[in-house]
From TrEMBL:
Protein name: Methyltransferase domain-containing protein
Annotated GO MF terms: methyltransferase activity
Organism field: Micromonospora viridifaciens
Biological process terms in GO annotation: lipid metabolic process; methylation
The keyword Transferase appears for this protein: yes
Domain Methyltransferase: 38-155
Keywords tagged on the record: Lipid metabolism, Methyltransferase, S-adenosyl-L-methionine, Transferase
CDD domains tied to this protein: AdoMet_MTases
Family the entry assigns: Belongs to the CFA/CMAS family.
S-adenosyl-L-methionine as UniProt keyword: yes
Lineage top rank: taxon: Bacteria
Length: 247
């Protein structure tokens, strides 16, 4: 494989999913999401849909065809990985991956997931409003969104933007828009460190294997800058809140 293709493939290679979340925490969220037998699960901004696949797998139990899912994302490379994962787990009849702008999706589902993708709707408030139209009556939404763990520095706001709230404000915002909060939890420090490390690790490994590649110097500088930003600017400040919401 040419080194450029190799590099592209390495980008997400070390990540389980594209959010700070441990196996145990992921299992807890799926328990709280409580996908019903025969239910339909929709994941907007799904990436390669690992949590969606687990939601369908877990809820289907022995009745392998009982739950169906659809993942929506704009990145074809990630969607292809999702389709491959579905095929490897014999879930290709149950879970489909579609390339589409999340904000244009209009088919409601029993359970909706939107993790780290509120920007696809124009921000947190717009996402919580739009997602209300996509959860069927009696349904639930798993919403993962950034939050400040404590008052941010001006440097962190400059880097990460204005549309991030402290957890209490995020919860109040959801309530103000008519949602009831069935569950909330935040990513802990180890989940964040693992997320940031695995986000860089695939490309770190590529660099070690191709130290003299023409693009190595630029990539090395990019990875160093990202790590410096994380540990120097937002580690311990930026959180990720997982809310299970209903209305
Ligand atoms: C931080 S990742 C989270 C992925 C996934 N939810 C997970 O937890 O692994 C955000 C995802 O949103 C997708 N995305 C960004 N803009 C989008 C849009 N307008 N419509 C659909 N997906 C979008 C990106 O391609 C990316 O896969």
């Amino acid at each position: 494989m040419p080194s450029a293709d190799d590099l592209a493939a390495s980008r997400y290679a070390r990540m389980r999913w594209n959010t700070p979340l441990s196996e145990e925490h992921g299992a807890l969220l799926l328990e709280r999401l409580a996908v019903p037998p025969g239910g339909r699960v929709l994941d907007l901004g799904c990436g390669w849909g690992e949590l969606l696949l687990r939601a369908v797998e877990t809820a289907s139990g022995s009745d392998a065809a009982s739950v169906t899912g659809v993942g929506v994302d704009t990145d074809e490379v990630l969607l292809a990985r999702g389709r491959q994962l579905a095929a490897e787990r014999s879930l290709q009849q149950q879970v489909t991956f579609l390339k589409q702008e999340a904000a244009t999706w209009d088919e409601p589902a029993d359970r909706v997931m939107c993790i780290g993708a509120s920007h696809a709707f124009g921000g947190t408030v717009a996402a919580l409003e739009a997602l209300a139209e996509l959860v069927r009556p009696g349904g639930r939404l798993l919403f993962g969104d950034g939050c400040w763990e404590r008052p941010p520095t001006s440097e962190a706001v400059e880097l990460l933007g204005e549309d991030i709230r402290q957890l209490a404000d995020l919860i109040e915002q959801a309530r103000a828009l008519g949602w009831r909060v069935l569950h909330f939890s935040t990513a802990d420090q180890r989940e964040w460190d693992d997320f940031e490390s695995t986000w860089l690790a695939g490309r770190q490994e590529w660099l070690l294997a191709h130290p003299a590649d023409p693009s190595a110097a630029e990539l090395r500088a990019e990875l160093d800058a990202r790590l410096r930003e994380y540990v120097g600017v937002y580690r311990g400040l930026l959180g990720l809140a997982y809310l299970v919401l209903a209305r």
